[in-house]
Amino acid sequence: THDNMFIDIGASSREDAEELVAVGDPITFHAPYSELANSRFTGKALDNRIGCLVMVEVLKRVETGATVYGVGTVQEEVGLKGAKTSAFRLNPDMALALDVTIAGDHPGMKEEEAPAKLDGGPAIILTDASGRGIITHPRVKDWLLETASEEDIPVQIEVSEGGTTDATAIHLTREGIPAGVVSVPTRYIHTTVSMASMKDIEMTVDLLVKAIERL
Questions:
Q1: What is the DSSP letter of 170?
Q2: Is 6 helix (H, G, I), strand (E, B) or coil?
Q3: pTM over 0.70
């Protein structure tokens, strides 16, 4: 923890250290992108770089007469701030938050704590934060699940007790915007090195493209 971690920069004295660094200098862990076996990879800040990747790929591939906006919001972790202003400005007919969800298929986690698994396909969130967050609009849920069934795309259904996404702010904007969440299972989120599967990302993109093209 931060209580017992320190950084050794090789200084031999206080004066030596003060010539190299100052109070307030930013630091970060070195966590480069790394490809692993079975189409899995690791890297920093996959929550929510993965959501951005999914969004960009969907916009590249989708063919539809509908108007589709892709928004990279800011400050989701500290108050869903970008989602609030973006949703108010665009006032969409419907919205999906693209995020990650905790994959619990590793030592130290119980299935009931985090049932999503790598390579199991995108997670469709029905509700999060024990109902204090998003409660997915029934028509949005049906639209996603029907698409997954008809296109033979595996999905994972999730009811979450903790955490939330931009969809929480979006579905409470103006008079209410029908919203839902599609998440990519990711191990070790909110740590220096997270892990995800390209298979899940591809299935998520496929689901979203097919769903949008049905509108």
A1: H
A2: coil
A3: yes
Amino acid at 81: K
What distance in Å separates the CA atoms of residue 173 and residue 168, rounded to the nearest whole number? 9
146 is catalytic: no
pLDDT in tens, 111-156: 888 999 999 999 999 999 988 999 999 999 999 999 999 999 999 9
Using CA atoms, how far residue 55 sits from 101, 168, 184, 195, in Å, is 16, 18, 12, 19
Sign of torsion, CA 52 54 57 61?
negative
Work out the burial of residue 127: count CB atoms within 10 Å of its CB; fewer than 13 is exposed, 13-18 middle, 19 or more buried. middle
How far is 124 from 101, CA to CA, in rounded Å? 10
Q: Which of 76, 113, 158, 202 is catalytic?
A: 76
> For the residues of 180-198, what is the DSSP string, one character each?
EEEEEEEBTTTSSSEEEEH
pLDDT digits (tens, 9 = 90+) for 67-95: 999 999 999 888 889 999 999 999 999 99
Nearest to 189 by CA among 2, 47, 1, 29: 47
Sheet (strand 95-102) strand order: 95-102, 179-186, 123-127, 156-159
Cβ distance 62 to 205 under 8 Å?
no
Domains and CATH numbers, the chain: 14-213 (3.40.630.10)
